[in-house]
Design goal:
The complex is a heterotetramer of chains A (86), B (527), C (309) and D (204). With 309 residues, chain C is of the alpha+beta class. Chain C contains six helices and 13 strands. The longest helix of chain C is centred in the N-terminal third of the chain and has 34 residues. With 204 residues, chain D is mostly helical. The chains are: A mainly alpha (86), B mainly alpha (527), C alpha+beta (309), D mainly alpha (204). Bound molecules: heme-A (HEA) (2 copies), dinuclear copper ion (CUA) and copper (II) ion.
């Protein structure tokens, strides 16, 4: 129970961090940082709220999310090959 | 033990079918509905050919023709080949082959059929409402699909809904294969048909949503004018093509992988020996599913896509050809030193290998950059995909029907007629589609209502082929339908198959197995 | 039949095609032969006792590696050919192509606008394509070249003609009702003849009032109106414009029918907002001239249409 | 009673968890298509995207993020309580999740409405007059937040059904899977917002 609350506090704090860093002009790094924070947040939600971490009987389910992410990266990356080099 | 036909549930008659959660009944529901749509699609194909028998307007007007090939494509792709094997034979046989009583989510399974019918109903409704039948081609390319006054939204919504059904079937198949295997049914004792369906199911789950969102956006763009793809609003129409093919290329593997699974079932049974290279065939399915997801750009070589992208996509395209080749070689080797009985299912399976090889090899010409510049959007492409889809998936379905007919219906068909039908189909098929390859090489573009006089003789020949094909189809289906009622009773294992479905009565009892079997050997071990 | 060797690209495509064809046909023959041979040789009558062979690692490796090498060679060959098709040589003659439903417009560097493409032999031609409405595709089978024309984007293509003559141009991307009729020609002239033609036309252009064809009529050709409208009374995709001015017609305005007498304002509006009043019995597919034609052109077109008796 | 037999056969909890995750995967790719479009248009029109993002209401966006995160917390707590046999507490948490969801939707509605008032809605002439990049930004903004809101709505529907089932005693500490699966869905919708928020509101 307490874990849930700690996680929630971290999530809210990360949101704050994301908002406050966005004010500054860091060029391209701004996007990277924002996405990094978003990934950390979704990692917390996945592992704690959605109990991926405790998925004992089907451990491979944990790999589905990184897997799907890799696929998405491929989709976007290959499309960029077209867009960026046209 | 009463068969699943006799045991009704809460409902009677008709209702006992459309509200049944039994995977076998649902499989047969799909069989009936999919074949009905197939009959419509075939009729449309026949009309297309009739129009093209001579240059100039023959039996219809251009707008009618455009609607015809669009409907023909939409019905054949979304209502026939994509759901075809997974929903009919996957539903019916996958649970039995892994020793389960049903799929993992029987109710969801029924729901997918209902959704399928809903999507089909929308697509059909779209013909009679709004601005009339859709005329965009099955690819719905923007900006044409945003501009044409016909009823695009409803048709697109129909396809979107069909996608849902496909995803749900996929989820069901993956979960069933993971969770409901009988004791002792290890991954490498799975029949290869299960491997085919399993790989397909993953593609269904992972890429169908991409086309879903694409169509949804097109819909929103048409209805409320949000700017996404429309160049008039700054959009990039090529992005539509990317998103569309991210789904629709893998979709061609949704069509072919289960068909390849069927071939891998039929060959060992009629060669009476184990399959050659079980693991190679199983893994090549996965390889096709994975690599095949990243080759979509080969539909866009002349679209204005960047050259670098074209080169990369061309390379990846060639790489998917290799695992397909591995399968073909293993199949041919399975015949080696077998004890072969050329029963109708085997005949169709061998024809599959021949026609699919032609289709696949013609694909290589399109995968090569320089040649595709010439071949793209010509009849070469039309020839290519009819060879792989009809010659491949279509003939695999015919093979499966003849292979599993006794199991599904408990009756045997007339054993001689399929050979005559096969002869007509084979000759008709090649007369119909081979000229298309030549036409394409000579530069006849596709989706043409009319053509220049130099293409006349080949187009004419092609139309003649379609008539021969009619004969074959009618004879084949006539035989099956007739024997559905009049055929003699079938034994439980007429072909001597070793997979689980042949170890239970024909037709199977309601819950397939009295007792869940204990599996102790591979699927094709005859001794 | 497409005539023999007509362009550089033609040769490239032909060679690669042959290369792939030889490999493919050999593989097909091999597979088919083995299939049929095995089926006869090991028929149940002749071979009642099968032998179980589970597989062979070496064979698997063999038929993975060899096809991989073969397809890689095809890829490489296709790629080099493509590279040649894409790399525009120096000093090419530049022509701009505008595609629209359902006609082509070719614009030369001196401002000359034509509905057929006329080019000199042996000189590289560099085409730059765009589209006004939906996607079309410029396709000359004789030269084995094809390129989509995409709205909002410029794409390019080059080729070189080796033979004199006239060749078909087809539209290879589905673009609606008259897609099959979106045809034109490429005329290949000798170098001298071409430049004589080119300069003559250029001079006419300079004089503003070209000899022969009056401006309105020329615009009517140039803007592609004739793809959908006749001026002799036959209905095409759109209504004929013969005797239109002053006629009373029935149009659909926001879904409601109404009658109206054709005047200058209506003609003008038909060009700029064609979907505001749609002639009954016709689909609302006429492309708008807004942002495409200049004010003068529109005035000229309207004047032309008024005179169509 | 054949049709009911599937209910009687053993409950395969692992199976339905797997099924749910597979469904979530396809949901991720549904949004994936939109993220792809977003990435490309942002790359092509980074300037206009920046400009357009300035006019979005950042505090409301941040508030909505916190609201959804909190609803995720209550969702997790609700499941936790149910497993501890405290169905009343579970119900309370569930109801607060639903309320937070509604609050989120209300804010979203308010946000959209004020944009509409400024003439910034799909196909509005005022919008079409702007830079192409801005038109696309709003096209994506409406599509992505709209689709997300639709998911929140579906989620609320699911959770309401759960309230009903818990009260009827059909979902309880031994049969908590329906609640767990609805929760998974809810959290996923939350995760998607976690990405939407910086991508739309925090562009610099
Ligand atoms: C069942 C469906 C199916 C299947 C399996 C395939 C399989 C393949 N397809 Fe096809 N394709 C379609 C259905 C299918 N296709 C459709 C419907 C279209 C048109 C869409 C439209 O525009 O409307 C299309 C269009 C299409 C194009 C775009 C053409 C264009 O529009 O310009 C390309 C280009 O690369 C292509 C390539 C391939 C390749 C390389 C394969 C490979 O997977 C084939 C692999 C198989 C073999 C190679 C044969 C067997 C192997 C051997 C005998 C071993 C020896 C082989 C080697 C040495 C290589 N296909
Ligand atoms: C599953 C896929 C599938 C199948 C099986 C077929 C089958 C056929 N198709 Fe194809 N076709 C497509 C998928 C398919 N098609 C697709 C995707 C397109 C692209 C569409 C687009 O461009 O958007 C296309 C396009 C296409 C074209 C190109 C149109 C153009 O570009 O202008 C043509 C032209 O000849 C054609 C012809 C045919 C014919 C003659 C058949 C024949 O097989 C039909 C043969 C059968 C008969 C002639 C028999 C008639 C029989 C009866 C009426 C009795 C039926 C009874 C029972 C079933 C019991 N099709
Ligand atoms: Cu223009 Cu087809
Ligand atoms: Cu493809």
């Amino acid at each position: 129970m307490n874990t849930y609350i700690y996680i929630w506090v971290s999530l809210v704090m990360l949101t704050g961090l994301s908002v406050s860093t966005a004010g500054r002009n860091w060029g391209r790094w701004g996007l990277t940082l924002a996405l990094l924070i978003a990934f950390i947040k979704s990692g917390l939600i996945l592992n704690y709220f959605m109990h991926l971490k405790d998925q004992k009987k089907m451990k491979w389910i944990r790999w589905m999310i990184p897997g799907i992410f890799a696929i998405l990266v491929f989709f976007i990356g290959l499309t960029f090959l077209d867009i960026a080099l046209r | 033990m009463p068969s699943f036909y006799e045991e009704n549930g809460r409902f009677r008659g008709f209702w006992a079918w459309i509200f049944s959660t039994d995977h076998k009944r649902i499989g047969l529901l799909y069989l009936l509905s999919i074949l009905s749509f197939y009959a419509i699609g075939v009729l449309l194909g026949f009309l297309i050919r009739l129009e093209l028998i001579a240059p100039g307007p023959t039996i219809m007007r251009p707008q009618t023709y455009n609607a015809l090939f669009t409907l023909h494509g939409v019905i054949m792709i979304f209502l026939f080949v994509i759901p075809g094997i997974p929903a009919i034979f996957g539903n019916f046989f996958l649970p039995i082959q892994i020793g389960a009583r049903d799929v993992a989510f029987p109710k969801l399974n029924l729901l997918s059929w209902w959704i399928y019918m809903g999507g089909a109903a929308l697509a059909i409704l779209s013909l009679f409402t709004g601005g009339g039948p859709i005329d965009t081609g099955w690819t719905f390319y923007v900006p044409y699909s945003l501009r044409t006054p016909v009823n695009v939204p409803l048709a697109v919504l129909g396809v979107f809904v069909l996608g849902f059904s496909s995803i749900l079937t996929g989820i069901n198949m993956v979960t069933t294969t993971h969770q409901l295997r009988a004791p002792g049914m290890t991954w490498f004792r799975l029949p290869l048909f299960v491997w085919g369906i399993y790989a397909t199911a993953w593609i269904q789950i992972l890429v169908t949503p991409v086309v879903g969102i694409t169509l949804l956006l097109t819909l929103m763009e048409r209805l409320v004018g949000v700017g996404i793809f429309d160049p008039a609003k700054g959009g990039d129409p090529l992005l539509y093509q990317h998103l569309f093919w991210i789904y629709s290329h893998p979709a061609v593997y949704i069509m072919i992988l289960p068909a390849m699974g069927i071939i891998s079932e039929i060959l060992p049974v009629f060669a009476r020996r184990t399959i050659f290279g079980y693991k190679a065939i199983a893994f090549s399915s996965l390889a096709i599913a994975i690599v095949g997801s990243f080759v979509w750009g080969h539909h866009m070589f002349v679209s204005g896509q960047s050259d670098v992208a074209s080169v990369v996509f061309s390379l990846l395209t060639f790489l998917v050809a290799v695992p397909s080749g591995v399968k073909v070689f293993n199949w041919v080797s399975t015949l080696y030193k077998g004890s072969i009985e050329v029963a109708p299912p085997l005949l169709f399976a061998l024809t599959f290998i021949f026609l699919f090889a032609i289709g696949g090899l013609t694909g290589l010409f399109q995968g090569a950059l320089a040649t595709d510049v010439h071949l793209h959007d010509t009849y070469w492409v039309v020839g290519h995909f009819h060879y792989v889809i009809f010659g491949g998936t279509g003939f695999a379905i015919f093979g499966a029907l003849h292979y599993w007919f006794p199991k599904m219906f408990g009756r045997m068909y007339h054993r001689k007629i399929p050979y005559i039908a096969w002869g007509l189909l084979f000759v008709g098929f090649n007369t119909l589609y081979f000229p298309m390859l030549l036409l394409g090489w000579q530069g006849m573009p596709r989706r043409y209502f009319d053509y220049l006089p130099q293409f006349h003789s080949l187009q004419f020949l092609s139309t003649i082929g379609s008539w021969i094909l009619i004969g074959g189809l009618i004879l084949m289906f006539g035989n099956l339908v007739h024997c559905l009622f009049k055929g003699e009773k079938a034994e439980s294992n007429p072909w001597g198959g070793a997979t689980l479905e042949w170890q239970i009565p024909s037709p199977p009892p309601r819950e397939n197995f009295d007792e869940i079997p204990l599996v102790s050997k591979g699927p094709y071990e005859y001794r | 039949m497409i005539r023999g060797l007509t362009g550089l690209s033609d040769e490239i495509v032909q060679n690669i095609f042959l290369y792939i064809a030889v490999i493919s046909v050999s593989i097909l023959v091999l597979i088919t032969f083995l299939m049929i041979y095995f089926t006869f040789r090991y028929h149940r009558r002749r071979n009642p006792h099968p032998e179980d062979i589970h597989g062979n690692l070496w064979l698997e490796i063999l038929w993975t590696v060899i096809p991989t090498l073969l397809v890689l060679s095809m890829f490489y060959y296709g790629w080099t050919g493509f590279h040649a098709l894409k790399k525009v040589p120096e000093g090419a003659l530049k022509v701009k192509i505008t595609a629209r439903t359902w006609s082509w417009l070719f614009e030369y560097e001196n401002g000359l606008k034509e509905t057929e493409l006329t080019i000199p032999i042996e000189k590289p031609i560099h085409l730059q394509l765009t589209s006004q409405d939906v996607i079309h595709s410029f396709y000359v089978p004789a030269f084995r070249v094809k390129q989509d024309a995409v709205p909002g984007m410029t794409t390019s293509l080059w080729f070189r003609a080796r033979d004199l003559g006239t060749y078909d141009v087809l539209c290879a991307e589905y673009c609606g009702q008259q897609h099959a009729y979106m045809l034109t020609k490429v005329r290949v002239l000798s170098e001298e003849e071409f430049y004589r033609w080119y300069e003559e036309k250029g001079k006419e252009l300079q004089m503003k009032k070209p000899v022969g064809v009056p401006l309105g009529e020329r615009l009517f050709q140039e803007k592609g109106c004739m793809a959908c409208h006749s001026v002799d009374g036959t209905p095409r995709v759109g209504p004929t414009l013969k005797g239109l001015f002053g006629k009373t017609i029935v149009v659909m305005t926001e879904g409601k029918e109404r009658q109206l007498k054709v005047d200058e304002d209506y003609l003008r509006k038909s060009l700029l907002e064609p979907n505001a009043d749609v002639v009954k019995g016709f689909p609302p597919i006429m492309p708008s001239q807004k942002g495409v034609s200049t004010e003068e052109d529109i005035t000229e077109l309207v004047r032309y249409m008024k005179e169509l008796k | 009673m054949i049709n009911d037999r599937s209910m009687e056969t053993h409950r395969d909890d692992l199976g339905s968890t797997l099924g749910m995750w597979l469904f979530l995967l396809s949901e991720i790719l549904l949004f994936g298509g939109l993220f792809l479009l977003y990435a490309i248009y942002r790359f092509n029109y980074s300037q206009s995207f920046h400009l357009a993002a300035e006019s979005l209401n950042r505090p409301i966006g941040a508030l909505n993020t916190v609201i959804l995160l909190t609803s995720s917390l209550t969702m997790a707590l609700s499941l936790y309580a149910l497993k501890q046999k405290q169905s009343l507490r579970s119900l309370c948490f569930l109801l607060s999740t639903i309320l937070l969801g509604l609050l989120f939707l209300f804010n979203k509605y308010w946000e959209w409405a004020s944009k509409f008032e400024h003439g910034v809605y799909p196909n509005a002439t005022r919008l079409l007059e702007r830079e192409r990049g801005e038109v696309l930004f709003y096209g994506l903004y409406y599509s992505m937040t709209g689709l997300h809101a639709l998911h929140v709505l579906v989620g609320i529907g699911l959770l309401t059904a759960m309230v009903y089932f818990i009260r009827k005693g059909k979902v309880h500490h031994e049969r908590y899977l329906p609640l767990e699966n609805s929760g998974l869905y809810w959290h996923l919708v939350d995760i998607i917002w976690v990405f939407l928020f910086p991508l739309f509101y925090l562009i610099t």
